[in-house]
Specification:
The chain contains 13 helices and twelve strands. It has 366 residues and is of the alpha/beta class. Bound molecules: iron/sulfur cluster (SF4).
């Protein structure tokens, strides 16, 4: 067994508060994910993730609001009109959304996400968001997973009580979707200007994606200075245009989770993976989603009867990876990324490790 010196050097540099450069990340991405060197990479990412969150992982609950034949036509998504999975639109009554949000909070969700299709009216989304916000505890982070933003819609979302948006420059953006990459990047900027945190992820990764494209997305997301990053694999929904490519394994996904974690350096608490799995949690993921309602990876309008996991299932997976789960409101969604600035300021070594160590508030762990 042999771990190349360059890999050891990269891991040491990240451990000392530096950031891997593009060449470093390319080298990591090209390591065979079953190799001993990849094992070292995953172990290093795990250590950084555990330290960043004080070994207290987080679980968000994502509530899908609606089903539609979405004209954005992302070919991996069950809502895309072109895939024809859901012929009829539908929408959860706002009372049901509120009930699910409040129940999730009571069951231990650290944050609540509201997710809508790319064509869902923004005014309606804001209305539902305000109603949910009114019923949640004020300290519970509410996060929007919606279409691209304008300065006006971003401000409206922030005013409605959302603290963050989930947004990504996805694999094949503009090629496998009808959304130009520039539009996604503009939304990143607009969200930030509106005072919204950005959560993001390298997704949805399939076996056909090259090192170049994965690297491009990692660098884009790092430059956006998100409050969390991570990696998610594409689930092959029957009937969707990309299902013919197959899926990557949980081990391959775990390796990408590790590289995404290391790309952000030590200056970030959150690193996600989806769908929740133990190998990912053992390779640097400390953030999972439980899901209810419509979901772009499912053919059932209520994913809780299908692919969606509940909070208890996510908690069990984290416990199998020897994580505790944070009790109370998310820390991840309230701390901005400081890595690029710190690295550019020449931060390195023990001094920076001490200065940048993130201290989540004292909470009772399970
Ligand atoms: S991923 Fe979002 S924008 Fe794309 S088709 Fe699905 S719902 Fe529409």
């Amino acid at each position: 067994m042999n771990v190349p010196n360059r890999v050891t050097e990269i891991l040491a540099r990240v451990g000392d508060g530096g950031l891997p450069d593009e060449g470093d990340l390319r080298l990591l991405l090209e390591l065979p994910h079953r190799s001993a060197a990849a094992g070292e990479v995953m172990a290093a990412a795990r250590e950084i993730a555990r330290e960043a969150c004080g070994n207290r992982a987080e679980i968000c609950v994502q509530i899908g609001l609606n089903v539609s034949a979405c004209p954005m036509n992302c070919r991996f998504c069950s809502f895309a009109a072109v895939n024809g999975v859901f012929p009829d639109p539908s929408e959860l009554p706002v009372g049901d959304v509120v009930e699910r949000a409040v129940r999730s909070e009571a069951e231990g969700a650290n944050s609540i996400y509201l997710m809508a299709t790319g064509d869902y009216p923004m005014a309606r989304f804001v209305e539902v968001g305000q109603e949910v916000r009114r019923h949640l505890r004020s300290e519970t982070p509410l996060v929007a997973n919606v279409g691209d933003l304008t300065p006006t819609t971003a401000r409206t979302i922030a005013d409605a009580g959302f603290c963050a948006v989930y947004h990504a420059a996805r694999m094949g953006e503009g090629r496998e979707t009808a959304i130009p990459l520039e539009k996604r990047l503009r939304t990143f900027r607009i969200a930030r200007e509106a005072g919204l945190q950005l959560g993001t992820c390298v997704e949805p990764v399939g076996p056909e994606h090259t090192t170049d494209e994965i690297l491009e997305k990692i660098l884009i997301h790092r430059a956006a200075e998100p409050c969390f990053s991570g990696a998610m694999r594409r689930i092959n929904v029957p009937g969707t245009g990309l299902a013919r490519h197959g899926q990557i394994s949980e081990l391959r996904l775990a390796y990408l989770v590790a590289v995404a974690r290391l790309a952000m350096g030590r200056f970030l608490i959150g690193n996600c993976t989806h769908e929740p799995n133990v190998p990912g949690a053992c390779a640097g993921a400390n953030l999972f989603w439980a899901e209810v309602g419509p979901n772009p990876r499912d053919t059932d309008r209520r994913t809780e009867r299908g692919r969606g996991m509940d909070i208890a299932a996510c908690r069990r997976l984290f416990e199998e990876a020897e994580y505790s789960v944070l009790e109370g409101p998310s820390v991840i969604h309230t701390r901005p990324y400081a890595g690029v600035a710190a690295a550019e300021a020449g931060a390195c070594g023990r001094h920076v490790r001490a200065a940048s160590r993130i201290h989540p508030p004292p909470v009772t762990a399970v």
